[in-house]
Amino acid sequence: MDQSGLRWLDPAIEQVLPTIRQVFKQYAPTGFVVEFTAGKEWFQHGLFSLHHSGNALDIRTRTLPDGGVGSISACIATVLQEALNARWGRGNYTVLRNDQGPHKPHIHVQYNKGAFWSQPGDFVGKA
């Protein structure tokens, strides 16, 4: 994604870009370039996706040494969630790793606009 596409992000997501970049700088291998693959867009996202409103973005992880499915990307996702909780308050942002399965490795970050948004697995096994 051309990084200019990030100009459509909601200010609530835009404000966390420095935190995202800092976590990747600290935990990704030297020289890794953070690449945002989705910002405000309609294609390739579900009807109720927060991408449509610019309240979510995706970060490519397949170029990490673990291919986006191993311990490096898991660590980055965990640390990123903790950093966003510490800076902006628990529950305001959600970080999901490979929420569409390991065949689409990425980290998804969303701003929770005051309502609970379902996450993958919320309805598994529920009647």
Low-confidence stretches: none
Order of helices and strands: HHEEHEE
Total number of strands: 4
Task: Decide which structural class fits the backbone.
Answer: alpha+beta
Mean pLDDT: 83
Instruction: Give the % helix.
Output: 25-40%
Strand content: 5-15%
Based on CA atoms alone, the radius of gyration comes out at: 14 Å
C-alpha geometry: globular
Structure explained in plain terms:
- This protein is an alpha+beta fold.
- It is 26% helix and 15% strand.
- The chain has three helices and four strands.
- The chain has helices spanning 11-14, 17-27, 71-88, and strands spanning 36-38, 56-60, 93-97, 106-111.
- The chain has a four-stranded antiparallel sheet, with helices on one face.
- The mean pLDDT is 83.
